[in-house]
Write a structure and sequence with these properties.
heterodimer; A: 444 residues; alpha/beta; ten-stranded mixed β-sheet; nine-stranded mixed β-sheet; 8 helices; 19 strands; globular; B: 252 residues; Rossmann fold; six-stranded mixed β-sheet; four-stranded antiparallel β-sheet; 12 strands; 38% helix
């Protein structure tokens, strides 16, 4: 059990001044070079890219001395991923069966209309490829205030293609929209994926983001979810890429007034996986529920940094994340709840439970609370344990062989999350996915 | 069926069983009684293969095979069943899923016809009724939130479905009210047959009013001190264990 309550002052004192390490310096130069090349283009996205470039240039690039990157090394990127773009190509594999009637396909960040089924009336699809006639506003009041990681800024600064989905006021979709993001390359390279969903007031939608692919490609993903007043959003982020891929993802969720947002993130570890999730509770009456299952396999690395900011009174958030690490895998979890002064009546819960499936696996988990208000309910807990030996013996004594017994216990550990998946198509996808993720995790 | 010869076993370096002999033949019901700390649970745990119980001497043969060479699951496949004194709660794994995995693996290993999902559900529901458990329990996590009596009845249900040839019941009667005790006893009695054997480990004579044993043994200090017929249990009930264990103080 690790509990931590940290004040801003302590945090500032504890954080060493950023010193550019050789690797961080090199990666920063590569990122800036990408951004500068892209900024030279003149099209509808120019303003957007310029603004992001300025931020990128000003922000220190993460190094091992950066607190939020303490457990995650970017050494894997030394192979030059940021110097080469993943090829713009047709799919290198047969696409998996869709999980929804409407599916939009991105390959290495590029939208492929010929592979996509457009969403129905009431949903507008805008391509973020610079082809719009009028300049696209640098989005969102939340942008400046939203994703603050260098990789998110790099994504904006180097943006070539992406999707903006707008669901009109009062539209209730009766089936999910799936966005399939395939990342694939033979050599070390990168792609930027960009996805933004705006839900109108009183609307209802389900978005499935599904990442697949293989090869030494770094997917630098940004997803923005902004929902309207009294809307309902169900969001899935399924990260099922092969173990040799790299993924740095940023997700921001801003639920509207009196709205409900539920997110499920299911992921398996790969060569490098880093997710920064930011939730801004900026409208009263909003509720956000974040859930996740993380499975570490082989030598993989998975780092999840979740931050929920309660800025206004009477918003509710809960988080339930469960991790399982097998073989020599490493899971990092940092769950931060920041309750602003004046955010009275906040209710925020955080739970992160982890299971070590092998002696070589490692889990680093930390809840972080910053609370500047008395009138709040806030609970947090993190645990890390092993499979229950008593339960294992019980199953074996009933004739169930050890590997199967372990598999059953692992499934049992996350069953409450699997059972809570609201969409049948995703629930049906999740079980075999978990089955194969656990099989890989069990291989030592 | 079960031959235990001069069995010695230790837990955490402490000798608990100190030369135990017991012979159980097909068709027999044996009751093993004894005071707290006499080694009763150690015996069932050693027989079922729980980690941490080390055989330091002698052997236990099941159908002529040394059980120490078998994994817990192999013992189950061979036809052994242990009804736990403290059945384990496994949240997130439903009873039905558990029964399915258990029966699939065991029946396959035993060369029996597999049960399809419909048959399994039907049998499980019937057996639930037999032990007075609401079939809704099948959907719940294994033993999750079950009362003490429900857990014990769940053990009996598993036993009835698995049809073991040797059933070891570790204080299955403890903590049961009289109704639940009768349910458990009925379940055990329905399993009695010429090709099966049952070993009941118990503190109390009470259970033996409902499951009448062929043999009663008194276990104390890690050895069988006395064996007899069902009347021995009544004698113990009246006199306690003192008259036997006092004799034991005299070096044998």
């Amino acid at each position: 059990m690790t509990d931590a309550v940290t004040s801003t002052a302590q945090r500032a004192a504890a954080r060493p001044a950023p010193v550019a390490e050789p690797l961080a310096h090199k990666l920063a130069a590569q990122a800036l070079s990408l951004a500068e090349q892209a900024a030279a283009q003149s099209d509808a996205l120019s303003a957007w890219r310029q603004a992001a470039l300025a931020q990128l240039a000003a922000l220190p690039f993460p190094s091992k001395k950066t607190e939020q990157w303490k457990y995650t090394s970017l050494m894997a990127l030394d192979a030059g991923h940021l110097t080469a773009q993943a090829p713009d190509q047709a799919p290198s594999q047969t696409l998996p069966e869709p999980l929804a009637p409407w599916r939009l396909v991105l390959i290495n960040g590029r939208y492929h209309a010929e592979l996509s089924q457009l969403p129905p009336q009431g949903v507008t699809l805008t391509r973020l490829d610079g082809s719009a006639e009028a300049p696209l506003e640098a989005p969102l009041s939340v942008a400046e205030d939203g994703l603050r990681t260098p990789f998110a800024w790099l994504n904006s600064a180097a943006l070539q293609d992406g999707l903006l989905l707008t669901v009109a006021d009062g539209v209730a979709l009766d089936a999910p929209i799936e966005v399939l993001l395939l990342g694939s390359a033979e050599a070390a390279s990168h792609c930027h994926t960009r996805l933004r969903l705006q839900l109108g007031a009183g609307s209802r939608a389900t978005l499935i983001e599904r990442y697949i692919g293989q090869g030494p490609v770094l997917t630098n993903a940004v997803t923005e979810l902004v929902t309207g007043d009294n809307s309902d959003l169900v969001h899935y982020r399924l990260q099922a890429e092969a173990a040799d891929t790299l993924h740095i993802g940023s997700l921001i969720l801003v639920p509207g007034r009196d709205s409900r947002a539920t997110s499920f993130q299911l992921m398996q570890g790969n060569a490098l996986r880093r997710n920064d999730v930011r939730v801004l509770m900026a409208h009263s009456g909003a509720s956000a529920s974040l859930n996740g299952i993380f499975v570490g396999r082989g030598n993989t690395h998975t780092d999840n940094q979740i931050c929920i900011e309660h800025r206004v009174p009477h918003a509710v958030s809960d988080q339930l994340f469960k991790g399982m690490a097998g073989d020599k895998a490493r899971l990092v979890f940092n769950g931060r709840i920041h309750i602003f002064a004046g955010a009275k009546g906040t209710n925020a819960e955080l739970s992160n439970k982890n299971l070590l499936l092998s002696p070589g696996a490692e889990v680093d988990t930390k809840p972080e609370l910053e609370i500047y208000n008395d009138d709040v309910k806030c609970s947090h807990g993190t645990t890390c344990g092993q499979l229950d030996a008593q339960a294992l013996f019980y199953l074996r004594s009933r004739g169930i062989a050890e590997p199967e017994a372990k598999r059953m216990l692992a499934f049992g550990f996350v069953n409450e999350l699997l059972a809570a998946l609201p969409d049948a198509a995703v629930a049906e996808w999740a079980r075999p996915w978990l089955e194969s993720a656990l099989t890989e995790a069990a291989q030592a | 069926m079960l031959e235990i010869k001069d069995l010695r076993a230790s837990v955490a370096g402490q000798d608990i069983l100190k030369g135990l002999n017991l012979s159980v033949k097909a068709g027999e019901v044996h009751a093993i009684m004894g005071p707290n700390g006499s080694g009763k649970s150690t015996l069932t745990n050693v027989l079922s293969g729980r980690d941490g119980y080390e055989i330091t001497g002698g052997q236990a043969l099941f159908d002529g095979r040394d059980v120490s060479e078998l994994d817990p699951e192999q013992r189950a496949h061979a036809g052994m069943f242990l009804a736990f004194q403290y059945p384990v709660e496994i949240p997130g794994v439903s009873n039905l899923e558990f029964l399915k995995a258990s029966l699939e693996a065991t029946r396959k290993a035993q060369g029996k016809e597999p049960w399809d999902a419909v048959t399994l559900l039907k049998k499980a529901r019937e057996t639930c009724k037999q032990v007075d458990l609401d079939p809704q329990f099948l959907k719940r996590g294994v033993n999750e939130g079950f009362s003490g009596g429900e857990k014990k009845r769940n053990e009996i249900m598993q036993m009835l479905l698995l049809e073991p040839r040797l059933a070891l019941l570790d204080e299955t009667d403890s903590g049961l009210d009289i109704d639940a005790l009768q349910v458990v006893a009925r379940g055990v009695n329905s399993l009695r047959s010429p090709d099966r054997a049952i070993v009941l480990v118990t503190h109390y004579q009470r259970l033996l009013d409902y499951i009448v044993p062929d043999h009663v043994h008194v276990l104390a200090g890690g050895r069988i001190l006395k064996s007899g017929g069902k009347e021995l249990a009544l004698e113990l009930e009246q006199k306690g264990y003192g008259w036997l264990t006092d004799q034991e103080d005299v070096p044998a």
